[in-house]
Amino acid sequence: MTASRVLVLNSGSSSVKYQLLDMGDDSRLAQGLVERIGEETSRLVHTPLRGGGGKREKSGPIADHAAALKAVAGELAADGLGLDSPDLAAIGHRVVHGGLRFTEPTVIDDEVLAEIERLVPVAPLHNPANLTGIRTAMALRPDLPQVAVFDTAFHTTMPESAARYAIDVATADAYRIRRYGFHGTSHAYVSRETARLLGREPEEVNVIVLHLGNGASASAVRGGRCVDTSMGLTPLEGLVMGTRSGDIDPAVTFHLKRVAGMDEDEVDVLLNKKSGLVGLCGDNDMREIRRRIDEGDERAALAFDIYVHRLKKYIGAYYAVLGRVDAVAFTAGVGENAAPVREAAIAGLEELGLAVDAGLNSVRSDEARLISPEYARVAVAVVPTDEELEIARQSYALVQSTAGSNE
Question: How many C-beta atoms surround the C-beta of residue 289 within 10 A?
């Protein structure tokens, strides 16, 4: 019997999220989270999803990622799903930055590890944590294929006219300055699922994907390939986000240094952690912002309007880039759950063939669905993202193809 299970790991600086999936039927067997790694108050939450049994929580110090993954392995073993199982085909790792070299899921070896390490300067918050998770997992199962799936990979199909910034070419090339884009795993999954929802092949469909969570990004996808995306060298560029400013005149940073006496670290914190919705109104939870709007809060209303204004600009821009749009797809926490955001973002775009049906938009569901009226020329969809399933699918397909080529 062919091994069909994939363990998906998303390693952060002080956390590990994981899911164990069976690729025979795309089902989830278990999922969980280890958080506050390295602290006395570490916590592991594990949920078996097949065969009964409820959520289990454990608290206490977890010294490092090695200890965290050993604890995860113990919880899986308690459910009969241990990492030593012959049913485990691969471990798939989310890696934030793959630069221009990694355009596809990649089996990890020493050379791949070295290249991910070389990319740390353009992803200093994420790639080191991803590397720690990979090395820990490799130590636990050195015999098992470990696959890196890169957030940036889906966006490597952008033409140079979209990916390059208009700065000195030699400087840009020397320091790898260009638009890379992020959330690529989500954009890939959602664009394909949108095509499926329309009953068409991805190669036939042009989609604008709006991944709206605490981090937010837009992409223009032509025939299954990304041709533009809103995040750039870092995840700071583009849409207004929970705590990030999105697009801003770069001279603002010089102004703050000259006039306010702020140094680089202070400007970095301002734009990444004290801007966006939280900077505008003190809240980055869209539900709380809507509650405040309903109570007449003007700051919350302005924050919402700025958020939506930026969304409209990107929808219009990507409509122009694509020339023909078959669907606009909303996804992630805000995109999937905030009906007022979807309604406001599409309002006034009727001349572009876009409209939202108020009744359909108000329905809450975990299923992919259309929220546009039948007469609308362009479909508007809500498509729940599933990055873990996408990572598992890509990892499993790569391992299967590699095994086939070695036979």
Answer: 25
